[in-house]
Amino acid sequence: MSLAPRLDLRQSQSLVMTPQLQQAIKLLTLSNLEIETFIGDALESNPLLEMGEAPRADGEADGDPGDAPETPREEREADTLIAEGAAESDAPTDLSSAALEIDRDTGDGSWGASEGAGGEDDGFGIEQRGEASLSLTDHLHAQIGAAARDEREIFIARALIDRLDEAGYLAEPLLSVAEALGIPLAEAERSLALVQSLDPAGVGARDLAECLAIQAREADRYDPCMARLIDHLDLVARGEVSRLQKLCEVDAEDLADMLAELRGYNPRPGLAFGQQESGTVAPDILISREGSGTWRVALNEATLPRLVVNRPYLVTLREGCRDRSSRAWLKDKLEDARWLIRALDQRQKTILAVASEIVTQQEGFFLHGVSHLRPLTLKQVAQRIEMHESTVSRVTSNKFLHCPRGTFDLKYFFTSGVGGGEDGEGASAESVKARIKSLIDAEDPKKILSDDKLVELLKAEDFDIARRTVAKYREALGIGSSVQRRRAKKLAAIG
């Protein structure tokens, strides 16, 4: 047997993720507002591209300020749209849905939040467009100069301000701060008192009791009775009204007034600062019900720019390109422009197909509300519209749907099934949560429903779920246990 080296030719096939295909996949995850940013960058880099007017429906007069224009594709019914696929009347496209899924065929299933919209590599984060509001630290630093007596006190107070957490509390022991700054504890206490005198009232406190006490002093309600009440917040939490009356030496009416006063204080005064106000969500998909009873699914043209090739400019450039390099540059720009237009067109078709199937599967929700939300998975939708599950996942990422019931994230309609009913399908987790909340909201204050009782009531309605599931959903809704609700309603009754 010879071991001499030799050369062999072998032929093999492999799938390659081209940069354009990677970009097309990324376009699926972007919302309409992020697509607008992406298109703005494309317009700057490619002179052959320009913004085109949204197509008008037949018979619409020029300059009509009515509703947003619709493409012929969006005028068709959702079921017909899915069945036809890419119709001949639509803009031509060479980018098929299968092509957008090649990454999954090669085993690349790691498309996550880091590669999605708003990631560090993309620069499309919508949150970056907003202007940050004034932080708690800046708000306090702006006040300290006028309130301090000398530069040394200003320095210590600023050091304390920088150590406050987002809720406005000083979590670090004051002795440790004094040792770190090399100052006496008494001097640190005087500077802390200065910080606690700033707006908002309660900032600079070391615990909840001190925070409430500061606000009570600010409201001129910190008398000996209120002081004893604040010192025994554990009894307030347990609802031991009789003990509180004895400790505070007040009757039931006065105690009710004091508890009402406490409830009016802010236990986390710092959270009012540094919180950016969430703007109105611009939906990507619009759902409406026609008079014939069918659902109309349309893209929100108001937030979806349209790209076209600037043909007059293309002709001018083509006439001016004399050398080979200029003609090659123009050819590359034209191919890039056409590819991007086709990719955006395919993105719209894919979003419409997924949204239409969601409407079909969750029609009960759109007609009757969350109690009729069905269990639904990405795989089910993918099989119905004959796409890969990864494509459906990307399409539903960072997209919002507006319907007569409000604006919802597309991910909201995908929920697991629990407690199988007679049809064996079960109910969605959201519908079970909604039913639990409605039962608790309607409970008699004298007959608080335990988790076991909730299980019995749900089983009577064909929701066959375990007690631990009820407890998990109740906690997810932010609802306390039966003991906690009983105490809270007892305190509310005397207040």
Automatic annotation (TrEMBL):
<feature type="domain" description="RNA polymerase sigma factor 54 core-binding">
    <location>
        <begin position="127"/>
        <end position="313"/>
    </location>
</feature>
<dbReference type="GO" id="GO:0006352">
    <property type="term" value="P:DNA-templated transcription initiation"/>
</dbReference>
<keyword id="KW-0808">Transferase</keyword>
<dbReference type="GO" id="GO:0003677">
    <property type="term" value="F:DNA binding"/>
</dbReference>
<keyword id="KW-0804">Transcription</keyword>
<dbReference type="GO" id="GO:0001216">
    <property type="term" value="F:DNA-binding transcription activator activity"/>
</dbReference>
<keyword id="KW-0548">Nucleotidyltransferase</keyword>
<dbReference type="InterPro" id="IPR007634">
    <property type="entry name" value="RNA_pol_sigma_54_DNA-bd"/>
</dbReference>
<dbReference type="InterPro" id="IPR038709">
    <property type="entry name" value="RpoN_core-bd_sf"/>
</dbReference>
<dbReference type="InterPro" id="IPR000394">
    <property type="entry name" value="RNA_pol_sigma_54"/>
</dbReference>
<comment type="function">
    <text>Sigma factors are initiation factors that promote the attachment of RNA polymerase to specific initiation sites and are then released.</text>
</comment>
<dbReference type="Pfam" id="PF04552">
    <property type="entry name" value="Sigma54_DBD"/>
</dbReference>
<dbReference type="Pfam" id="PF04963">
    <property type="entry name" value="Sigma54_CBD"/>
</dbReference>
<comment type="similarity">
    <text>Belongs to the sigma-54 factor family.</text>
</comment>
<keyword id="KW-0240">DNA-directed RNA polymerase</keyword>
<dbReference type="GO" id="GO:0000428">
    <property type="term" value="C:DNA-directed RNA polymerase complex"/>
</dbReference>
<keyword id="KW-0238">DNA-binding</keyword>
<dbReference type="InterPro" id="IPR007046">
    <property type="entry name" value="RNA_pol_sigma_54_core-bd"/>
</dbReference>
<feature type="domain" description="RNA polymerase sigma factor 54 DNA-binding">
    <location>
        <begin position="328"/>
        <end position="487"/>
    </location>
</feature>
<feature type="region of interest" description="Disordered">
    <location>
        <begin position="103"/>
        <end position="126"/>
    </location>
</feature>
<dbReference type="GO" id="GO:0016987">
    <property type="term" value="F:sigma factor activity"/>
</dbReference>
<dbReference type="GO" id="GO:0016779">
    <property type="term" value="F:nucleotidyltransferase activity"/>
</dbReference>
<keyword id="KW-0805">Transcription regulation</keyword>
<keyword id="KW-0731">Sigma factor</keyword>
<feature type="region of interest" description="Disordered">
    <location>
        <begin position="53"/>
        <end position="78"/>
    </location>
</feature>
<dbReference type="Pfam" id="PF00309">
    <property type="entry name" value="Sigma54_AID"/>
</dbReference>
<protein>
    <recommendedName>
        <fullName>RNA polymerase sigma-54 factor</fullName>
    </recommendedName>
</protein>
